[in-house]
Amino acid sequence: MHYPKARQSLMSLAVASACAAAAAQAYAQEAPAKAADAPAEVQSVVVTGLRASLFSSMNLKRNSDGIVDGIVAEDIGKFPDTNLAESLQRISGVSIDRNIGEGQKITVRGVGPDFNMVLLNGRQMPTSNLGDLNGRAFDFANLASEAISQIQVYKTSRAETPTGGIGATLNVMTARPFDRPGLHASIGAKGVYDTSNDKLPHDIQANRSLTPEVSGIYSNTFANNTLGVALTGSYQERNLGFNNAAVSNGWKGPFRGDENSWGVIPQGPSTDCPACVITNRPTGGNLYSVPQNLNYNFNGVKRQRTNAQLTLQYKPVDTLVTTLDYTYSENKLQTKRNDISAWFNFGPSSSAWTSGSPSSPLVYKEFVSNSDIAMGAADFATKTQNKSLGFNAVWKPSSTLRMELDAHHSTAVSGADSPFGSSNTLGTASFSRGNTTADFSHDFPVLSIEGADFVGKPQQVTGSVFTNSYMKGEVEQLQAKGAWKVLEASEVKFGLNYTKVDNRSAFSNNQRDTWGGATKPSDYPSSLWHPDTLRQYFDKIDGSGNPNLFNQFYTFNFAQVRQVVANASGQPNLYMPKNYFDNDARTEEKSKALYLQFNTDWDTRLPIHTSVGVRYEKTDVVSTALVPSATKISWVSQNEFPITFGDPTFTTLTGRYHNLLPSFDSDIELTSDQKLRFSYGETIGRPRYDQIQGGTTLNSLVRTDGGTGSAGNPALKPVKSKNFDLSYEWYYGKQNFVSLGLFKKNLENYAGQSRVFATPFNLHTPVGGALWNEAIASACANTDTTCIRNYIFKNHPTAPGVTPPGVNGDVNGTIVGQPSDPVAQFQITSFSNQKKASLNGAELNLQHMFGESGFGVSTNYTFVHSGLRYDNNAVGEQFALVGLSNSYNVIGIYEDKKWTGRLAYNWRGQFLSSTFDGSGPNPQYVEPYGQVDVSLTYAYNEKLSFQLEGINVTNQIQRVHSRTQQQLESVTQGGPRYMIGARYKF
Is the pLDDT of residue 9 over 60? Predict the structure, then answer.
């Protein structure tokens, strides 16, 4: 829609400004105003190839209010990438988090996944992800790309946009029949070959690496384009694998060099440990940490993804368009895993260390005998379903007024899709581990074990965990909005919104803490264990060729061994997940919002367009949590103190907040092909669901130094950001442009994690009790828990709470805390609005097509900086911005009438992914990662085309470390993925 040119008087401008609550004195520009509904204009662009897609994306950026980027489909049913997140990473400022080799979540301008809002056709979408039961991040892996017509990325705020996106608001738009009248249809088929499936042990490997993918789209209009229908569908199978080496339980510490409270670094050779030699020992105030364990795990995954959408449009009169649509997606994952690990006990050891602070072990060796060589397996499946039913009506009663009503009900549900639960682990062990060494001097951590004897001390099942997790997100939303053209060249936008968001996250654990052995080795036929070597599964990682690597382990079929141990125990229900949830958190958020926005063009020497708006929003929060009640602490093995839980109870807490959010956008036409933009806006990002949980939850495992737990705070305010943007854009050719953008975000009300010591449920612990102290007085060191346990079993076998090994079927022996013992201390993590942060950055974009040669390049670079970074030399909890990283993309393309080719390189710099690892407050840094993707299309004729694609063709690995590069958290090897297919247009 374009309005006729008109010159406005000062009086009329004052009236228009008053309508928008903004005063101004100037002349309106003699030019068409911005369209009342910019997205509708963009959808009308017909694209037929990669160059046309880039051209349409460029025009989206050029013609929008504020800083907007986007990606437009090359053709109906043909989005540029197989995964939406993979496409989004091509946009400056957007970085992705990968899972199972493909994009899953996004970070925008250094703002993490929880604070980016994803819309589907302008509607807020619910989230559910069993990998993060308490997050708000949208999982792009659930959506196929075939039905998507474009993605718009709004980097600056607008009054009409739903709140929640501090980094950006992303609008994913699907094909609608009235956008392209007439018949349009296509069908495509691909074969997907994932090489990572070939690099797996036989017990977890899928029987085929080549899997199918089919998709189709049908769109047509009837009755003189007054009735339209569009139907899209896709189905994909993918079999893949990844192998991971990790310090999976994190790093113990950090400690000071002049401390030795844990005895993890002995002073040197002594009578008790003549072999204890420390090279370059950390001293003074230098910090050091030691690994909790070292684990190698091998993972086979099968994925089936189904997407479908039906859209019906009806235009009874020229002034009214109605749309009814239903969207469905299902993502099913089946995972099998085998692993081998060694756990450290912080006893006598030798080690060699890096210099400086923090210091890390290059080599760490513990002197042990008859300890466990742990080998586990997992076999579980999950399913996520997304459903959305929406209705939209657009009424244009006159050339100056446009009204719109939009309503939808959407759900996202994730849960177990296996009788064995949503995740599980069956632990086995051979108790034949001697002296154990971990070498962290290369990218790959090398585990060495002396004295292993799998024949004399064969495998037996030890502990187990069966987990059932469930998450459901539900959104009900009603939006009424309008656009009124006033004084020919100006426009007032207004609207009312009501949004109700319900989230439920629940889980239960059925855990057997019998790590000393659940049953006897003789219960298991030797045919259950399948010998294998592990070196070949990590051949792309530097250091895996070390000859000192303990290169043997056993795989096994999870279901077979589970059945054997269940039968041998006589209690099969102990080896299945619970059929109820003992942790259940439910949150309801009701938000009401209204907004007003005024757009106009100014007839100054340099034409100016401005948009001034304000949004008011109020949210009520009701949070209810099922909190398990703890009854006792039992000491079951060397450093294992599990809690016994009783019947859980529900608790409910409430909260409320409101925000007034102004926004301002302005662009100046320096010349006909150059623009200067300035924007200011305030946005909010809502707290994570665990931060507003309505109760206190204790973690099930306690250690000698106490336990941990968490408590929520529903009264938390959202994070608020004040955003400044300045951008210069030069469109120097039909398909060419260069832009430079500067941005700054001042953020406040971040929820800080604070830990307080508490004694919930007044649980008594054997640690520090009368029997414990007597054992220490009889020459046991206070860190030698094995000595203390053996003393108690030998000298007080009938004391209250003491069950020696072998009595009443207790294989390992149990000591239960008694009323005379100390009350256990717990570190309870809670949340409050206490943190502030600021970040700033720059984005550089270049798109250039080399005339009619068919060649072109699209590249961008993003720089992000914040002074609020993690201090690796500080002890305790810290607040730091996660996800902050620089990134760049280089995409080369070629296109002619027959061939289309693209070579893309995406790079993301190191970033902080978490401030906690499996041990406590330690950072996790994802190291720099670059990936090469290629695609090639051959058009046989106007209807039939063939495609060849490659993902991660250079087979890059991903590595995560803690305070230093030697403090490995994990390193993962996957593999390239290739697709070959054909597409036919009707």
Answer: no
| CA–centroid distance for 333 within its chain | 16
Residue 667 has pLDDT above 90, yes or no: yes
Give whole-number Cα distances, 30 to 400, 603, 670, in Å. Answer: 18, 6, 16
CB 646 within 8 A of CB 694: no
Q: How many CA atoms lie within 13 A of 408 on its CB side?
A: 24
Read off the tokens for 868. 């609020």
Which range has the worst mean pLDDT, 142-156, 677-691, 788-802?
142-156
- pLDDT of the residue at 122: 93
CA atoms within 13 A on the CB side of 40: 11
Q: What is the mean pLDDT of residues 955-975?
A: 96
Count H helices and E strands in the chain, helices first: 7, 50
pLDDT tier at 20, thresholds 50, 70, 90: very low
Query: How many angstroms separate the CA atoms of 308 and 121, rounded?
Result: 15
Say how far apart CA 291 and CA 244 lie, in whole Å. 16
Which are the contacts of 702, defined by CB distance < 8 A and separation ≥ 6? 633, 641, 642, 643, 765, 824
Residues 466/420, Cβ–Cβ less than 8 Å: yes
Query: What value does the mean pLDDT take over residues 143-172?
Result: 89
- Return the axis-axis angle of helices 770-777 and 785-795, rounded to nearest 10°: 110
How do 674-685 and 649-671 pair as beta strands?
antiparallel
Residue 367 burial (CB < 10 Å; 0-12/13-18/19+)?
Answer: middle
For residue range 249-290, list pLDDT tens digits in order. 999 989 988 876 544 666 667 777 788 889 998 988 899 999
Q: Residue 16: phi, psi to the nearest 5?
A: -65, -40
Query: What average pLDDT is seen over the chain?
Result: 89
Residue 444 near residue 971 (C-beta atoms within 8 A): yes
How far is residue 129's CA from residue 505's CA, in Å, rounded to a whole number? 10
How much helix, strand and coil, in percent to the nearest 5, is found in the chain? 10, 55, 35
Token reading at 311: 């859209």
Cα–Cα nearest to 753, from 830, 692, 699 = 830
In this predicted structure, the answer to whether residue 477 has a pLDDT above a threshold of 50 is yes
Give per-residue burial for 234-265: e unless 16+ CB within 10 Å, then b: bbbbbbbbbbbbbbbbbbbbbbbbeeeeeebb
Per-range mean pLDDT, top range of 85-99, 410-424, 632-646, 744-758:
410-424
Structure tokens at 953: 């063709």
- CA dist., res. 229 & res. 183, Å (int): 10
What amino acid is encoded at 901 in this protein?
G
Helix (H, G, I), strand (E, B) or coil at 568: helix
User: What single DSSP character describes residue 10?
Assistant: H
pLDDT in tens, 740-799: 999 999 999 988 777 778 898 899 999 999 999 999 999 899 888 989 999 999 999 999
Q: From the centroid of its chain, how far is CA 667? A: 35
- Between CA 686 and CA 709 the distance in angstroms is 23
Asked whether residue 596 carries a pLDDT value surpassing 60, the answer given is: yes
Single out the residue of 866, 865, 868, 880 nearest to residue 922, CA to CA: 880
Average pLDDT, stretch 393-404? 96
Rounded CA gap, 375 and 432, in Å? Answer: 13
Domain boundaries, the chain: 10-249+296-342+376-425+466-512+580-761+826-985, 764-822
Q: How far apart are the first and last CA of the chain?
A: 31
Residue type, 258: D
Query: In this structure, what token pair is assigned to residue 803?
Result: 């069950």
Structure tokens at 706: 């106490």
CATH no., domain 10-249+296-342+376-425+466-512+580-761+826-985: 2.40.170.20
Cβ count within 10 A of residue 885: 22
317 Cβ partners below 8 Å, 6+ apart? Answer: none
Q: Tell me the pTM.
A: 0.84
